[in-house]
Amino acid sequence: MHLTQELELFPEHRVTLLLFKEVKNAAELRKSAMEGKINGALINPTMLVDPFQVLVAANKAVHLQKIEKMKTRNLYSEIIFNLSPTNNISEAFKRFGISDGDDSVMVVVVHNKDESQLLTDIVAKVDGQQVSVEDISSMSDSAKIKKLYKVTPQEEKCGTLLDAVVCRMATKDVL
Amino acid sequence: MAQEKGTAVPVLLSKAELLKQGAEARVYRAEFLGKPAIVKERFPKRYRHPVLDEKLTHRRTVQEVRSILRCRKAGISAPVVYFVDYTSHCIFLEEIVGSSTVRDHIASTQQSCKDQELERLAQQMGQILARMHDEDVIHGDLTTSNMLLRRGTEDEESDLVLIDFGLSYISALPEDKGVDLYVLEKAFLSTHPNTEALFQKLLKSYTASSKKSSAVIKKLDEVRLRGRKRSMVG
Ligand SMILES: Nc1ncnc2c1ncn2[C@@H]1O[C@H](COP(=O)(O)OP(=O)(O)OP(=O)(O)O)[C@@H](O)[C@H]1O
Ligand SMILES: [Mg+2]
Q: What CATH number corresponds to the domain at position A116?
């Protein structure tokens, strides 16, 4: 169901993605996250094309944490910020964070090899149905994504929407 | 999570496969989040002043990723940028798997005398460079090693991929575009013997594809003349 990826650059770290639909306690989850009671980033899946997009954001966040150059308060807010095509922090939270009325959520956890308890804790907190992370494509809104990332039809000729999105995320610091 | 501060990229590269050691950069093959990737590392040049060197290296890294994005936005193929580390000056790029450089491709095709195939390739090169220049991207280091040929795709134009944008910049001046083509011509003719006619095909296709080609070709002629005069004197 979930997807766990090792970060080649940080071999002691894993990133795990969990996806939920029919979520009934988004407001409560958001509040817990703000209070630091959830060890993960809560993301609105509509703006996600593919799990790889989230992994790219997580890798960059861990890197910036290590070199002490994060733009936001903590690793999880940094992951949300990294997903955004712009350098505006509040805009990033509005687009990629969850809102109280949301009924689906992607949770991103950065952990050690042997921290499976973290995942169990997350699943217990979400009042919703866990689905396979691969289902993300059925939840995403590609029209909205193209608009936010300003993806042109010509760009899609030389690559996928995921390519376009990842390229912008990776280069936004120097645009 | 015991790891020292600072970038983790050098440790990864110490175990990665080195593909090419250049004068300015090392190119590695590595995995990035499970995908095949190419890492381009620009290392310090000892003979340069450290502060100046850092600035120049940073600028090249920035130029490279900016021009890649600009090209891709215009539908011109260049590798996807996955991740950039500005502290170790490393760019993680999509690996164009199974590709060969245009240089290698021309060399092997010349051997087997497939003239038609070479002409088609020259035509595609002319087209992609015309589109790049119409976007005001000046590559700065056009050679047949800095173009890759994607294998397997039958789709005409999209199988050429431009790489190595470290010396690129944005300019609308026909002179800059003319010099860009001149650099390619020099490299092309010296790398691939007896290709004058082939290169003419490339220029013809460039002329037909670019909206602003006449001013560029005029400048190319001027630059050629200047180059010849210079070599006569020097
Ligand atoms: N994205 C890629 N996919 C596959 N192969 C690549 C890719 N990028 C580079 N290569 C291979 O590595 C070689 C060198 O890459 P590149 O031209 O970017 O570096 P370089 O010539 O050393 O750089 P510089 O000219 O700045 O010193 C290319 O000729 C090509 O064979
Ligand atoms: Mg090169």
A: 3.30.2380.10
